[in-house]
Amino acid sequence: MAAATVEVTHGAGPTEAEAFGALDVVLDPELDEPITDLGFVRSLRVDDGEVTVHLRLPTSFCSPNFAYLMASDSKDVLTSLDGVVRVHVELDDHHDSEIINRGLAADAGYKGTFLHEAEHDLEELRATFRRKAHTAAMERCLTALLRADADLPEADLGTVRLGDLPATAHTEALLRRREAVGLPTTDDAIVMVDHEGRGYTADEVPMALRRARSTRISIDGNAHFCRGLLATRYPGADGDQTARADGAEPSDPTFIPLATLKEHRP
Amino acid sequence: MYSKDGENYFIVDAHVALWDARPENQRNIHGKQFIDCFYDYHRNLSPESEVWSYEDYLYQGGERLMKDLFTDGYVDHAIFQPAYLSEFYKTGFGQSEEAFALTQANPDKLTYNHNFDPRNGEQGLEQLHADAEKYGLKGVKLYTAEWHGESRGWKLDDPWAIRYFEACRELGITNIHVHKGPTIRPLDRDAFDVADVDHVASDFTDLNFVVEHCGLPRLEDFCWIATQEPNVHAGLAVAMPFIHTRPRYFAQIMGELMYWLGEDRIQFSSDYAIWTPRWLVERFVDFQIPEDLNEYAPLTVEAKKKVLGLNAAKMYDIPVPAELRLPDADETATGPRQPEAADLASV
Hints:
heterodimer, A: GMP Synthetase, Chain A, domain 3, two-stranded antiparallel sheet, 9% strand, B: alpha/beta, 12 helices, 38% helix
């Protein structure tokens, strides 16, 4: 983001770059990516420890529950920074901007924001998408093994352990997702498990892999579509986005043909 | 009909609209936000040569629709799937009377589906009976994220919705097109979740449930329930244009649908006027799954013919010239086709 690349401090509190960097931990749960990578942070300003952030989304009709989660997580993260005295988070141009911004300003919480439309909380929603993120990360690692070794029987994937995976970004990503859902990250842990750690018999592996694959395709597809829509809606927003290699197309700068992956395997 | 390389394709566009989103019909800011969202979809996913002006996009009218679909677009038959959106537009978004009049003037080319909202209770049920008679309904388009007073969404397995499906069964409305949207009550859960489709598809095995956008953005949830329910079908609205901007993603969507549902339960649509059918039909006939995505079998000419028209024609009893018909394929490896075998695949 342009505003954050300059080290500016207006009085006390974090610099704008520090405040922007702090937002790296706020994820779009559905896309499993930081809002800072997605270009969702429209502007950020720090004045004497008072932080003002504007968020933007790919459409006015993005799900309001996810929109609220990202906005309220942003407020929580910024409020916890040293020297911050006040935080204003505003979601721009959304059908629920008024409702969400009012709720955030009043620290009304999820139920206080959405009133009769909220029943309990959004924890199950978060959990659902943390599980999907894990499933997709697992599939990327396992499919990479299959692509690298044409002789590897699919049914054998059920016995692969974390220690068997090559040291790649996909493996690191899997370890982070496992931690997020509470699965072990030791070398002897089985890779192909559901969110409760349950593995699969050789018979079950092919179907479970197919299901995991559809989850990965879905997340990758949505992530690229949302990026594109944001840039269509806010010209120039693509300059604020970090390129995503997973699910890239030949027209994307991050595209690597699968055949190349195979040939270059150490 | 579209012909290429000696093959003839009967084209059914299973999801089209005649909408009016002009400022004078917008009830509030949400009317503008809604059409702007559609326009961004259109601009983002269309080839440059196919992008319309914003002005053209707000309203097309019947004459332009007929030209875009039938004169230029190779379409043999199209099915109106109107979204009501009365909270956003004064006379609604989809123009029922205009679309129905066009259907009456071109009965061999157009089918009119209407919509209902189970939150209208008894009164809505009466209306559904009246609409079924007036329009001669074979199908309905349901948008679960429709706003309605204090409520901004409903589920297909809500008690009142069940009563409406019972009425559909009585009235011979057999084709239920389901479109999931971003809001639902309560907001605690994922609004795009398709678990409710699973419930009603199990309970109403004599109705067809066509899930529009093939469940996108929840392709994975959709494929899984469709595998278990032989009366669940995939509509390709919004999925089709990825063929241009994101062909590998489109290949994977098609590959997944072919694997989980098979070639007999996928229906082409342009989602007119979000996109126009001409370029989508041309591209789809030319399309092939990239060789390096070898987890998927190549798309056959037969499968393309079924997707582009034969599947929807069969569901809607649209006459297809004898020489263009094809037999059903075998069951997919993943799931049953017969209603009595449904749900065996669930874990």
